[in-house]
């Protein structure tokens, strides 16, 4: 779905760059009445319209190891993508994908973290649209901090009328990057 929504961008940079679209590995259903996300999606929805995610955030039930459900599998998945299809100059992510892209950007810079065994150079840039810091994940709380700012050049798109990811959350993510470029618009 993201590929269709960005077709105009893809066409405008086609002569400059190859865009590779990576779908998150986990099917996600909307939250139930209890607020929990579940790992399987409806069979009657076409594959193209099913929502995918990089992890499931367990509400009120932290996991024993401190990671979001599915996060470790997503890291292993993206390691294979980087190894088999890379190297990549940069990354663009939207919403949870932007949060994951921000984490990945730092992991490629910060080789001391548990999940930093990537055989890939740091990105030259990162573009984060409606991104946020995944603050509920205890195991990665040493990443994306203002004490050790991410040096990779970053562009942050912030929708002032966004109701899913509040602008304050998006601005919080910009604070962990050195010299972030921020583009604000009146949309959601």
UniProtKB/TrEMBL annotation:
Report if keyword Hydrolase is assigned: yes
InterPro entries for the chain:
AB_hydrolase_fold, FSH-like_dom, LovG
Q: What is this protein called?
A: Serine hydrolase domain-containing protein
Domain of life according to the entry: Eukaryota
Q: Which cellular component terms (GO) are annotated to the entry? A: cytoplasm; nucleus
Q: Which organism does this record belong to?
A: Rhizopus microsporus var. microsporus
- According to the entry, every stretch annotated as the Serine hydrolase domain falls at 1-188
Matches recorded under SUPFAM superfamilies: alpha/beta-Hydrolases (SSF53474)
TM ranges: none
Q: Name one GO molecular function term.
A: hydrolase activity
